[in-house]
């Protein structure tokens, strides 16, 4: 499943190179290339119709790695492929075949938690045949229901992602430019979190519902998040000044921002976010939807190739 525009339009070239490596290793490769944003969901849904029935989450996967789906692109491509594969499946079921990713995107955030950093390492992981069961999240909002594997952002962080779209030619630097621009219009608002039934009220700038550690490439937004612990790490920043936010920004690359008292981290299986005014959303770096939202974790709902 190839996003030809990923990585400054390198997706197709990388797909051809990696496809050749897989074929040389004796695998049969069928390539599906998207033509426009969102089409990958339909392509993956069509592929899903040819796959065996899903199994319940948490069970040992009885399906061998002889059949697999590979996404060539970044976090957004992975998001579309997962939502295509799960489109016609009942909530709580898993994708019945392993999923691989060849990282070619702007951020490639999720795959960092698998210790895969480039296409060559990704190919070796696929050829090695080792898989790991990881969690998925389900988002419900006014735009509909979607699955996510990396994180779901709302507020300042999402506004940065929306802004970063205009700087995509700069790669991962686009997120830094987005932070600078959004800081200029920084504003906090009242919000209510409900995590596993517990109500938490804050006045803040953003909420990140994290399955994995990274966002925007190398930004370690949730340093203690684990992709297979059955829990979200929910990161909240309370009201701060522009100067304070910018002073904290470098710390996000090491994850030490969570040591500041303006940043809180909660854990839970279900999360509801309500805000005084709608906040934009970024599920897995995609830019659509708005609060209010609910999110639920699906433990070990999908298997991914890993070293």
Question: Over all CA atoms, what is the radius of gyration?
Answer: 19 Å
Helix content: 10-25%
Q: What about the largest sheet?
A: 10 strands, antiparallel
Q: Sum up the overall morphology in one term.
A: globular
The class by helix and strand makeup works out as alpha+beta
State the end-to-end distance. Answer: 21 Å
By DSSP, the count of extended strands is 14
Write the layout of secondary structure elements.
Elements: H1 6-9, H2 11-24, H3 39-48, E1 69-73, H4 75-85, E2 99-103, H5 119-128, E3 131-141, E4 144-148, E5 151-155, H6 156-164, H7 173-183, E6 189-195, E7 198-210, E8 214-215, E9 219-220, E10 232-238, H8 242-248, E11 263-268, E12 270-275, E13 281-283, E14 293-305
Parallel strand pairs: 1-2
Antiparallel strand pairs: 3-4, 3-14, 5-7, 5-13, 6-7, 6-12, 7-10, 8-9, 10-11, 12-14
Helix pairs in contact: 2-5, 3-4, 6-7
Question: What would you note in describing this structure?
Answer:
It is a single chain. This protein is α+β, with helices and mostly antiparallel strands and 307 residues long. Helix content is 25%, strand content 29%. It has helices at residues 6-9, 11-24, 39-48, 75-85, 119-128, 156-164, 173-183, 242-248; strands at 69-73, 99-103, 131-141, 144-148, 151-155, 189-195, 198-210, 214-215, 219-220, 232-238, 263-268, 270-275, 281-283, 293-305. The strands form three sheets. Strands 3, 4, 5, 6, 7, 10, 11, 12, 13 and 14 form a ten-stranded antiparallel beta sheet that branches. Strand 8 (214-215) and strand 9 (219-220) form a beta hairpin. The protein is globular and about 55 Å long. The two termini are 21 Å apart. The model is unreliable at 59-63 (pLDDT under 50).
């Amino acid at each position: 499943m190839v996003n030809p525009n990923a990585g400054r339009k390198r997706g197709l070239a990388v797909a051809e190179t990696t496809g050749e490596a897989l074929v040389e290793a004796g695998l049969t490769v069928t390539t599906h290339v998207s033509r426009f944003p969102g089409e990958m969901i339909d392509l993956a849904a069509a592929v899903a119709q040819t796959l065996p029935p899903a199994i319940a989450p948490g069970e040992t996967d009885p399906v061998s790695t002889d059949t697999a789906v590979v996404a060539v692109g970044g976090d957004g491509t992975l998001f579309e492929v997962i939502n295509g594969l799960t489109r016609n499946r009942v909530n709580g079921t898993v994708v019945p075949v392993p999923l691989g990713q060849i990282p070619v995107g702007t951020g490639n955030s999720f795959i960092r938690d698998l210790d895969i950093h480039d296409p060559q390492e990704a190919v070796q992981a696929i050829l090695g045949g080792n898989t790991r069961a990881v969690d998925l999240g389900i988002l419900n909002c006014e735009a509909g229901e979607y699955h996510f594997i990396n994180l779901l952002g709302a507020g300042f962080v999402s506004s940065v992602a929306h802004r970063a779209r205009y700087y995509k030619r700069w790669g991962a630097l686009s997120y830094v430019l987005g932070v600078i621009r959004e800081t200029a219009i920084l504003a906090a608002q009242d919000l209510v979190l409900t995590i596993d039934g517990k109500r938490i009220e804050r006045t803040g700038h953003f909420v990140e519902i994290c399955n994995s550690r990274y966002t925007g490439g190398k930004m370690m937004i949730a340093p203690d998040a684990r992709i297979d612990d059955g829990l979200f790490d929910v990161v909240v920043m309370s009201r701060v000044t522009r100067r304070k936010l910018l002073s904290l920004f470098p710390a996000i690359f090491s994850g030490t921002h969570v040591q500041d008292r303006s940043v809180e981290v909660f854990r839970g299986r279900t999360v509801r976010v309500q805000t005084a005014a709608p906040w934009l959303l970024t599920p897995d770096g995609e830019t659509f939807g708005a609060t209010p939202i609910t999110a639920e974790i699906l433990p070990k709902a999908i298997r991914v190739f890993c070293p």
